[in-house]
Amino acid sequence: MKQQQEVVPAIDRIAVMGGGAWGTALAVTAIRAGRQVTLWAREPEVVEAIRTSQTNPVFLPGIELPPGIMATTDLGDAVREADAVLLVVPSQHVREACQALKPHLSPRLPIVICAKGIEQDTGLLLQSVLADELPDHPVAVLSGPTFAHEVAAGEPTAVTIASDDVPTAGESSLAARMAVALGTQTFRPYVADDVTGVEVGGAVKNVLALASGMASGLSFGANTRAAIITRGLDEIKRLSEALGGRRDTVTGLSGIGDLTLTCSSEQSRNMRYGMGLAMGRSAADIFDGRPVVVEGVENAVSVTDLARRLGVEMPICEAVRAVVIDGMPIQEAVATLLGRPFKAEPRSIDLLLPGPSDTTTLIMEDRS
Ligand SMILES: NC(=O)C1=CN([C@@H]2O[C@H](COP(=O)(O)OP(=O)(O)OC[C@H]3O[C@@H](n4cnc5c(N)ncnc54)[C@H](OP(=O)(O)O)[C@@H]3O)[C@@H](O)[C@H]2O)C=CC1
Ligand SMILES: O=C(CO)COP(=O)(O)O
Questions:
Q1: Which residues bind NAD(+) (predicted)?
Q2: 45: left (phi > 0), else alpha (psi -120 to 50), else beta?
């Protein structure tokens, strides 16, 4: 008997869950790509502003939104007609967002994780949070070097979209279909299948950006930043491999791409937060009292908890945790980091290095 082939519908109607900077920028992108877009936001004032003035002054000030974004505070309305949902709430709220979404979703509606992080209470990647809460829904992850303002302004940007569904003959993977749905001349998705590697890159780079910001705040220059990026990439690679991610994913947009971006620009909230802390400023002062997500703070805990459990060494992330969670003075954290025994690069090579008792104690200069 001839088997009937499943017809996979094109993705045209997109629901965006989250009216922050990134959710709004992705809604703009989807409109530019010719999609129908409904954006759900918690805040009635965000919805009102998008409807009446085509702006989101709370989270994306200075950007005029294109016409066509339907905004709502009603989740059911947002996803009723959708062909796919972009999940763009902060990482620690992904589980509750899935629980809220669940009663409104049609069967097998694809979900695209656009947040970057690891759940603190469980140490789970967000794909596993979705597997817990929405097990019957295909999942993709969108990540990469993407400051929301630049994306919304239409500046050329490249991203990774990953899904690990195995396409059968004549079908494309979810990641490939999402790439077609969202891609434009200025927003260029690259398709991948290493969901774990892509997720780990996005979660860990936020913690490393705090370190880069702290270094800048201490007036350390380009050498220190390059060291943080390079050795930080090694931390991403180790954690990713321990979780089953592919080795070469770190060289892509969601790895070195996003890490370089976030560790090098004060547009990054994580980098700015680290800088501010090193200059003795409070969180409220750093962001002028605005509601801003700094993923690296909670993720300093989730990343290092997970790494400890897996026996993966992540010294820069550990130093960031010591500062932002345990209150260690930044100078002391830097001294601890630099005072470790010397290491081989790459770690796999067999070099006879002196043990800790032979290692000279490095004295940090006081730069305050
Ligand atoms: N901004 C960027 O350039 C990029 C951000 N990302 C990632 O996107 C995610 C969202 O960040 P971003 O949009 O920038 O953050 P914003 O700070 O701009 O906004 C966060 C949004 O999430 C909402 N929110 C907070 N808690 C909940 C919750 N429990 N349920 C539902 N919504 C909630 C906020 O609403 P409320 O004000 O009511 O709390 C707000 O609308 C993060 O994981 C970030 O790392 C990824 C790439 C680029
Ligand atoms: O993820 C981002 C860029 O890719 C945004 O970084 P911040 O959250 O540090 O602003």
A1: 18-23, 148, 269
A2: alpha
Q: Give me ligand 1 centre to Cα 331, in Å.
A: 31
How many percent of the chain have pLDDT more than 90?
85
C-alpha closest to that of 268 among 149, 155, 113, 187: 149
Beta bridge partners of residue 161, listed in sequence order:
142, 191
Query: How much is the mean pLDDT over the chain?
Result: 92
Q: Is the pLDDT of residue 151 over 50?
A: yes
CA–CA separation, 306 vs 140, rounded Å?
22
Closest CA to 270 of 91, 142, 127: 91
ipTM, interface predicted TM-score of the complex: 0.96
Distance CA 364, CA 55 (A): 48
Kindly report, residue by residue over 70-101, the tens digit of the pLDDT.
999 999 999 999 999 999 999 999 999 999 99
Q: For residues 272 and 286, is the Cβ–Cβ distance under 8 A?
A: yes
Q: Could you give all domains of the chain from N- to C-terminal order, each with its CATH number?
A: 13-193 (3.40.50.720), 197-362 (1.10.1040.10)
Q: Is the pLDDT of residue 213 over 80?
A: yes
Q: Which of 2, 102, 205, 343 is catalytic?
A: 205
Q: Tell me if 365 is assigned to a ligand binding site.
A: no
To test ligand 2's pocket by mutation, which of 151, 207, 262, 287 has the most ligand atoms within 8 angstroms of CB?
262
Mutate to test the pocket of ligand 1, among 89, 99, 157 (most ligand atoms within 8 A of CB): 89
- Quick count: other Cβ atoms within 10 Å of Cβ 231? 17
**Dist. CA 296–CA 1, nearest whole Å:** 55
Q: How far apart are CA 265 and CA 35, in angstroms?
A: 31
pLDDT at 360 over 60: no
Residues with CB under 6 A from ligand 2: 116, 145-147, 206, 209, 258, 261-262, 268-270, 295
Average pLDDT over residues 151-176: 92
Please name which ligand lies nearest the alpha carbon of 158: 2
E strand segments, the chain: 13-17, 36-40, 69-72, 84-87, 111-113, 139-143, 157-162, 187-192
DSSP class of 354: P
